[in-house]
Design goal:
CATH class: Alpha Beta
Distance between the termini: 34 Å
CATH superfamily: P-loop containing nucleotide triphosphate hydrolases
Number of helices: 8
CATH architecture: 3-Layer(aba) Sandwich
Number of strands: 10
Largest sheet: 6 strands, mixed
CATH topology: Rossmann fold
Order of helices and strands: EEEHEEHEHHHEHEHEEH
Oligomer: single chain
Bound molecules: adenosine-5'-diphosphate, magnesium ion
Number of domains: 1
Radius of gyration: 19 Å
Strand order of the largest sheet: 6-7-8-3-9-10
Shape: globular
Helix content: 25-40%
Amino acid sequence: MSAAVNNRPVIQLRDLAKTYLTGEVEVKAVRGVTLDVYRGDFVAIMGASGSGKSTLMNMLGCLDQPTGGNYLLDGAAVAGLGRKELAKLRNKKIGFVFQSFNLLARTSALENVELPMFYSHPLISLRDCRQRAAQALEQIGLGERLGHHPSQLSGGQQQRIAIARALINRPELVLADEPTGNLDTRTSVEIMGLFQELNDSGITLVMVTHELDIAAYCKRLVVMRDGQVIRDTRNESRRSAREEIAKLDEAEQTAKLA
Ligand code: ADP
Ligand code: MG
């Protein structure tokens, strides 16, 4: 049902580490993570609060530099890049989705989705920008809501806009930190369905979640504890969001008729 996980690593981590120094105290947030993620994979990162998930994601997203080890993103070394170069790499290769959507409040759906394009393609015309953003929103079923502001939309719709924004620069990799953390069950399944479709189309996804129910839609489960990976397994019984939504719809119909 899904695109194969193939032989090109998008992420290669070798003994990656991050130590925070606050005053005199050292916090080893990530302690030697070695991990390869191949193109087309869909990874859930799990683990208790404080186990280093967000720190790892920040490094994967080139938002923060490691203090040890190596990171190759799509074959290119991230270590040693300055802020500007990191930002460029990030904008080109990575889309981000957050728990709290992180949309600009007083800005329309369309403008929220356009924004990353202005940074990555400064010479693109406003018209092309508009067109591409509108297309992206139509594709995820929000074509009727282009002019709406986030506050006029449901949580699920806001997260869809955030996903359209994450995809607008056609990234290699999508990183999501608890993307369903603020959504009800049905909406969560819908968002996971959208992620599964993206993944089927070849996009690599890495997602932090603390819910086993949500991780069950991913292809691979990586568990962290105290800054290290303690388990890394393929998910042999992957749930299909599309099938589950179809079942939920059917049950609703039956209930209506009864
Ligand atoms: P998780 O996302 O799994 O809850 P984090 O990566 O946020 O874990 O945190 C891992 C550890 O690093 C925790 O002990 C946390 O307190 C510490 N930590 C995270 N960010 C910072 C920071 N900016 N400065 C100092 N310590 C931090
Ligand atoms: Mg966290």
